[in-house]
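Researcher: Re-running this chain for the archive, since the previous output was lost when a drive failed. Same request as before.
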Amino acid sequence: MADILPHPAPPHPRPRPHRTTEVLTRLLPALYGILATLLGMAAAHLIAALTVPAASPVLAAGSTVIDLTPTPVKEWAIRTFGTADKPVLIGSVLAVVLVLAGVAGILAARRLALGLSVLVGLAAVAGVLALLRPSAGALDLVPSAVAALVGALTLWLLLRVSGTAEDPAGEGAASQAAARTASRRTVLLATGGAALAAAAVAGAGRWVSQVRLRGTDIALPPAADRAAALPAGLEERVPGISAFRTPNDDFYRVDTALTVPAIDVDSWALTIDGDVDREVEMSFDDLAGMRLVERDITLTCVSNDVGGPYVGAARWLGVPLRDVLDRAGIDSTGADQILCTDVDGMTISVPLKVALDGRDALVAIGMNGEALPREHGFPVRMVVPGLYGFVSACKWMTRMTLTTYDEQQAYWTERDWAIDAPIKISSRIDTPRPLSDSAAGRIVVGGVAWAQGVGIRGVEVRVDGGPWRPAELGPDAGDDYWRQWSYEWDAEPGQHFVACRATNKDGDVQTAVRATPFPEGSSGIQEIAVNVG
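Model: Regenerated structure tokens:
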């Protein structure tokens, strides 16, 4: 009879969570760590924007990476990424930080104190790096401290709200029960709220930074020595050629600053010290009240490879460098360099003999008829014709120290770049572009050439290794300014190779010997391939 009775139904097994869901659940703490770090960095960036922009944790870490990067790697980055090298660097630093933040979140879910310690440690490293900046002060620690506090508090809250935080009393079962009962809606609200908060705070920091970077439209006094009107260039009849005067927005920018300094012109001062008769401090009004001159000068970056984009020509307004130095008295000095320092402590050395040899070296306050743009050195920078920027073009300048190369070394000198680096005779093809397609027939080849301090006498063009033929030169705005050139070529179908070279007014011909930018500038002949159909 017992065998006839029905057996009780076996208990229904609890369904196992889908493997994907299980993996995502385990990765949630990593997401919490990343969100907490993003919110912490956004808060730190906002505080830095209000106080010391360069002390923002990511920027402080990025600046250290720049300082520690070997010269060949820096040159590769500039060649590969161009003016996007800074965003790429910041993005790389941010990616590493977020990976570590994810690890901190996972650790915090298991051992809260350990995970929070990792998160705070990341902020502490950024704080130390900010303090290592040459011009750092106690205020530079504040953004990193804010990042640590906001990040740790956010991570703790996310873990507690979602029920994945370690129980401080060690009651593992209670924590697991809390995790099971936490609703999906709660998790979504917590993570979404953290993400929105990070975006909002980051946006506020960006807005503050942009507001602080406005306002360079100060009225500049007229020059006592004005330059003649610039002649019309070839750009109207040679499409694709560089403009005779480079607009401010198009002027190249190569420097080590990850953020543009926001300088208050009313509190800015230029100090001249070192081996001088007397130390001098000048306000912007003091400088603007001196004899101002206008000069048309081409600037070139030492990182500019053959045919590269890092060269531009502008009209500069400033005080002759010799006049500024005379305020401090330099007749009896034993110095051989001017060590220029910017607002963030970056140093660039200028050979003192250059300031005294009669060239138009300027302490500049204007560019193309307006105050210096912040990206190009507002309120004051150095402009020295004939020398690459790494030994002449200090931007955001606050100090000039007369000293010797034996006593003090500038940033680039410490990294084995040349001390005295005169710009080499160079020429560039702007049009047609390399590997471009053109119709057979008349093609205008055009570009620019420069030989600062001497001037360009001629440019020649060669097609497919044939004889060098003279190009037509554009207008002449002085020996420190570049020359446009053009050459009419009767092109036949096929792939052709076009090269150019320049000759200066002393008869020196641009060398064909190839050299990399390190340590004193590139050299060689640019030759491009053009497809003619």
